[in-house]
TrEMBL record:
SMART domains found in the cross-reference section: PBPb, PBPe
Recorded superkingdom: Bacteria
Signal peptide: 1-20
Pfam families cross-referenced by the UniProt entry: SBP_bac_3
Domain named Solute-binding protein family 3/N-terminal: residues: 32-255
Residues in Ionotropic glutamate receptor C-terminal domain copies: 32-254
Cellular component, GO annotation: membrane
Protein name: Amino acid ABC transporter substrate-binding protein
Family: Belongs to the bacterial solute-binding protein 3 family.
Entry keywords, A to Z: Signal
An annotated Gene Ontology molecular function: ligand-gated monoatomic ion channel activity
InterPro entries membership: Iontro_rcpt_C, Solute-binding_3/MltF_N
Cited Gene3D superfamilies: Periplasmic binding protein-like II
Amino acid sequence: MKKLLCAAALSLAASTPALADPILDDIKSSGELKVCFDSGYMPFEMTAKNGQYIGFDIDLGKQMARAIGVKYVPVNTAWDGIIPTLLTGKCHMIMGGMTITPKRNIQVNFADPYVVIGQSILLDPKHEGKITDYRDLNSAEFVVATKLGTTGEQAIKRYLPKAKVNLYETQSEAVLEVANGKVDAFIYDLPFNAIYSAENKGQLVHLAEPFTYEPLGWAVPQGNPDTINFLNGYLRQIKGDGTYDRIYNKWFNDDKWLKQVK
């Protein structure tokens, strides 16, 4: 009897397909890779003068779509609603410079980090030499700005609890407040700050040493292990064959693309 039961169980297992991964299944059946991001985060995702989306994440996503033979579909959405947009099925994944945090990780699953950044400071020039790192800004006499809902906001709460905080819908609004002398400092991701500082020489002082450790990862809804496996495999492949370095150098070690957005 035991042998018969074992044989029946094995037969049933062999005839029952493995649980499907909804994300990969939808990508394959629709022929589309729908990717969420919030355009305006240099050099990860931006809107060019011709209306096309360009950037580091955009190129990585397009390369991914080509690799599996599907169409790349950009889904630009406001940052504060990007996880709900993902979870309601309007895109397959977030490829938008999202920092992996414990709070986000209880809502979504992340693939392995594809780049590591941190928070740096753009400072009103009147403070040059007086403020040398984030600790000097931790006082009620200073007003710091950042974009709402970002790790910049989290960093201010954690490292600058005594400072006054102004939050803005976009990073462009926030940094202009410093450039216009209305706030003392702008705290945001190093890549954006480095590019902004290079573009606007003399307007702001960049304290470029990051004071946080922030790995960025691609996010998918929970319960899609095959998609995570695919993303990690794809990342290993492009880092091994030179594709990643080629795309990285285009956006981080060259400024030719700036003409497309200015």
